[in-house]
Amino acid sequence: MERPTGAGALGPRLIGRLTAELILRSPQYMSCVKMYELDLRGNKIGAIENLGATENQFDSIDLSDNAVVKLEGFPKLPRLQQLLLHNNRLSRVGKNLHESVPNLQILVLTNNRLTNLQDLDNLASLPKLAMLSLLGNPVVTKPNYRLYIISKLKQLRILDFRKVKQKERVAAAKLFPSEADAAQHGANTFDPNEGLQGVTEGLQQLEAPIESDSDDEADEAAAAAAAAAATATQKAVSAPTHDQLVAVKAAIANAQTLEEITRLEAALKSGMVPSQVLIASGFANGSAAQEAPPSAASAMEVG
User: How far apart are CA 256 and CA 263, in angstroms?
Assistant: First the structure.
């Protein structure tokens, strides 16, 4: 009976695990910088393991776009020169990396979760590390972050894609003249509440709108009640009487100019009885309206 060959012979993939089967299935090629590379991108890998299956055949391993949380788990890979781990969940760096990847020169940790300067101290054991990227990690916001890294990784030539200058090395040496000074600075930048700040701010943001919405609703309700009361009052006070309407119509009939007719018609539509129009004492019995002197009372609302 013939044994199955090809990818199907390797068995089912284990999602989230870096297995020997996944390594054998993954693309392997010569990169543009002339490194033989293993491409393990985007496999939801949570931990580095089973890299012994590579048999130390690769100059570069790309573990980007996964879910690795700690930089550890390497077998002895003396050929490995480049390690790409951007867009993971790295928050810790393992010890004794120099024993497993002694010739590592390029380490890209962009967009991870490294928070404290002390988290990076273990990188100092890598004797040939020349290029390091930590962009997109919270640690880059720490005071004197760049000088701290330069003081710790004295062989580093490029940090965050910027060349390490001699004046930076001098400044780092002055700021951290000894390992004790660097350790003290790293300890001082450690914030035990870091990570809780976002939760606290989130709770504050949740509480604030509740109070604001409550106040706004109360204000809106009060304003609506006041408007309703004002409208009711206006209607009650300004409800037009039959005599007032007849008086305005009579004034229109007796108007002498087009301007006066236009003004009275507008007043009739708006419900405002002009102050010049008064109802004669016997108007209710059929008498005509008469013009009032300019000093008459202010306009009456007809509603």
Answer: 12
Residues 6+ apart with CB under 8 A from 230: none
Instruction: Give me the phi and psi of 159, to 5 degrees please.
Output: -125, 125
Neighbouring-strand partners of residue 291: 277
In what helix (H) or strand (E) does residue 93 lie, and over which residues does it extend? strand 92-93
pLDDT tens-place string over residues 162-212: 999 999 999 999 999 866 655 665 566 555 555 444 434 444 443 444 344
Give the separation between CA 202 and CA 228, rounded to whole angstroms.
39
Sequence-ordered alpha helix ranges (H) in the chain:
20-25, 97-100, 145-152, 166-175, 179-188, 196-238, 242-253, 258-270
Alpha-carbon dihedral of residues 196, 199, 205, 208, nearest 10 degrees? -80
Q: What percent of the chain has pLDDT over 70?
A: 62
Picking from 152, 42, 48, 44, the residue whose alpha carbon sits closest to that of residue 100 is 48
Pairing label, strands 290-291, 60-62: unpaired
130/145 Cα distance (integer angstroms): 17
pTM of the predicted structure, to 2 decimals: 0.59
Separation CA 220–CA 23 (nearest Å): 64
Angle, vertex CA 136, rays to CA 50 and CA 59, nearest 5: 35
